[in-house]
Specification:
alpha/beta, Rossmann fold, binds guanosine-5'-triphosphate, binds magnesium ion, autophagy
């Protein structure tokens, strides 16, 4: 029964190099954190199931993109087939916060003709003494972008589950409302794998039931 899901969502994680995208994904999918993390080359792939309501699971296909400029031509091609994403900046790196507008503009341009739902993530919240962006400031930017905002730490496991769950629930509600539709030529949302109803062994071999032939 493990691998049963009602939908599959494809999500992308974007933001400047070193903001901590790969660490956030590794914490979410493998429960691990390392202080040394190589820059992503092009795009990496992760996957995980999340249970948004008891018994309702969604499979997430997660694309971890390289923040470095030289990989931009590769990473751009992943927007179109993503239904949602985490737009990540580093709370201790003001420039990564200032670049958010550029990331969003690029995403909007390359996702056409589809739509993408983002959650704004202020990462490395464990580094309290090095903070360069206040929560109030980030919340203002998020609301100007029409997004929710959350602060995370892969190192201390703060809001890692929550960030992916909030985004997944947000997308799920839009799918339920019909604001987002499954489309043949689009990988953003896929209908899930639902098994045939399995009868209990008692029901399947009811005593006294005769063969109809
Ligand atoms: N203190 C702290 N450091 C973190 C956290 N997450 C990541 N880091 C560190 O930040 C550095 C960069 O992390 P990565 O996850 O490789 O960054 P990235 O955004 O994937 O970078 P690119 O792949 O180049 O785009 C590494 O040294 C991590 O150990 C965190 O939550 N807290
Ligand atoms: Mg990376």
């Amino acid at each position: 029964m493990e691998a049963i899901w009602i939908y599959q969502f494809r999500l992308i994680v974007i933001g400047d190099s070193t903001v901590g995208k790969s660490c956030l994904l590794r914490r979410f999918t493998e429960g691990k954190f390392t202080d040394i993390s190589d820059p992503t080359v092009g795009v990496d792939f992760f996957a995980r199931l999340v249970e948004i309501e008891p018994g309702k699971r969604i499979k997430l296909q997660l694309w971890d993109t390289a923040g470095q400029e030289r990989f931009r031509s590769i990473t751009r091609s992943y927007y179109r087939n993503s239904v949602g994403g985490l737009l990540v900046f580093d709370l201790t790196n003001r420039r990564s916060f200032e670049h958010l507008k550029d990331w969003l503009e690029e995403a909007k341009m390359y996702v056409q003709p589809f739509q993408i739902v983002f959650l704004l993530v202020g990462h490395k919240c464990d580094l309290v003494h090095l903070r360069q962006v206040s929560r109030e400031e980030a919340e203002k930017v998020a609301s100007a972008f029409g997004m929710k905002y959350i602060e995370t730490s892969a190192k201390d496991t703060v809001n890692v589950e929550e960030s992916f769950t909030i985004l997944t629930k947000d997308i799920y509600e839009r799918v339920k409302r019909g604001d987002i539709n499954i489309q043949e030529d689009w990988e953003g949302v896929k209908s899930g794998f639902v098994p045939n109803v399995v009868h209990s062994s008692e029901e399947a071999v009811k005593p006294g039931r005769k063969c109809p032939c």
